[in-house]
Amino acid sequence: MKSIKSEGGQALIIFALAAIGIFGIVALAIDGSVKFSDRRHAQNAADTAALAGALALVNGQTTEVDGVPIWKLDALDRALDNGYDDNHVSNEVWVYRCHEIDVTSPVDCGPYTGNPDYVQAVITSTVNTYFARILGINETVNTVHAVTYAKKRGPFYDGNLIVALNPDPCSGGNGNVQLGGSSTVTLTGGGAFVNSGGSDCGMEHGGSCPTIDGGSIGSPGDGNINLDGCPGVPAPSTNQPPYPFPPEMPEEPEECDVSHAGSFSSNSSTQTTTLSPGRFNEFPPKSGGGVTVYDNMIMNPGIYCVNDVVKLIDQHLILTGHDVTIYIRAGYDMDIQGGTITLDAPDTGPYAGYLIIIDSDFTGTVPDCHINGDSSNTYIGTIFAPYCDLIINGGNELTSYTSQIIGYTVAILGNAETELHYDINNSAKNQPKIGLMR
Question: Which residues contact 46 (CB under 8 A, 6 or more apart)?
């Protein structure tokens, strides 16, 4: 008689193997859901922490408490409110500005690295598993981060009188800021900044040494300030964070719309043409339809959107404008020379402090933008032409500007003294802004 062997043990083996698979599916469903839920919660916590820190930073909360600035404490408190207390066991929290990266952080600021206008919050969270332990997985880790833009209200470009935004070390073999000719350049209340970080052609003088009173000379890199032998010039402050390029541009004003045409009228008895703000295809507007443009032109307060090159060449022209902004649309440049010009920027409104704005659809070709001034001209307000090689020619007499000069490159030429004065009350200002970037 044959013996029959029991096969009951095989079923147990099959059941054991099936149980592992079942537990794996359950672990994926339950532990995976827990991990996903925690990740979403941690991301919300990082977003709100970064925004809280940015808001406090914009409001100037930089005073330190026990060595930690208040803006960072606000961000950490917001993370704590969401259950992330930085205990280094179940979670860790990092908060920092993107030019002061914490090397212990598991991620960096990406494209915003090195820029002080951005704040990053990073959270890692350890999640204990339930069913995945059977598979040898005791915990999972989530790492999330958020970057916010934080621009506080304050002096435009830190109150520097001259800023050359070209990020490249050299431009045509000349300095990105050139103090040429035999002119003497005096900067009062502000300094100069060269945005390039190379070893050559940052700032150089070909004539007299500049005088700087109340400002400094800065750049992102060593050795690109060629002012050796100039007495009284402060030592360059190198390795500063560069300004972003392309820069953030002001929004195009509504006056640029075709429905906001500017107008002008003339008075033969006073030999005066009065301009009203709006859009102009040419500036100064040419006479047409029997209307004569006289030598004396007065700009009423407001925004003037110009669709063609600003070119004032009439030596007899007297141009006066109070509380005005000239906005030159993309694709055009500027050439101001001759005449007697008195212009000042508005004190209030979205373009407060902006005297001239030159927009651009920058394609790599940088136009020359000229201002040929003399003692009969007065410019008060910021000249913002980040896509122009700005050339300021002071002529043969003392030329004085109460203006910031911000261009792609800046050259101050001439044979006499050129003075630039910084007055925060008559200059553009950074408007406070915060925003979640990623």
Answer: 79, 121, 122, 123, 144, 145, 146
Rounded to whole angstroms, the Cα distance separating 149 from 152 reads 10
CB-based contact 369:386 (threshold 8 Å): no
pLDDT tens for residues 378-427? 899 999 999 999 988 876 677 888 999 999 999 888 777 888 899 999 99
For residues 369 and 335, give the distance between their C-alpha atoms in angstroms, rounded to a whole number.
Answer: 6
Q: CA–CA separation, 218 vs 101, rounded Å?
A: 22
Using CA atoms in the order 50, 246, 350, 189, what is the torsion angle rounded to 10 degrees?
90
Helix (H, G, I), strand (E, B) or coil at 184: strand
- The DSSP code sequence of 147-164 is EEEEE-SEEGGGG-SEEE
Residues 6+ apart with CB under 8 A from 60: 152
The Cα angle at residue 199 between residues 194 and 243, in degrees rounded to 5: 30
Structure tokens belonging to residue 141 = 């880790």
| Phi, psi dihedrals of residue 27, rounded to the nearest 5° | -60, -45
- In sequence order, what are the residues at sequence separation of 6 or more whose Cβ sits closer than 8 angstroms to the Cβ of residue 136? none
Q: Say if residues 57 and 72 touch (Cβ distance below 8 Å).
A: no
Which residue reads 């537990």 in tokens? Answer: 23
CA–CA dist 352, 23 (Å, integer): 66
As given in the structure block, the two tokens for residue 281 are: 């295809």
Contact call for residues 256 and 329 (beta carbons, < 8 A):
yes
Per-residue pLDDT band for 120 (boundaries 50, 70, 90) equals very high
- pLDDT tens digits, one per residue of 181-215: 666 788 899 988 988 866 555 676 666 678 888 88
Q: What is the DSSP string of 288-327?
A: -TTPPPPSEEEEPSEEEEESS-EEE--TT-EEEESSEEEE
What mean pLDDT do residues 59-72 have? 90
For 435, the 3-state DSSP assignment is strand
Comparing 136-140, 213-217, 349-353, the range with the smallest average pLDDT is: 136-140
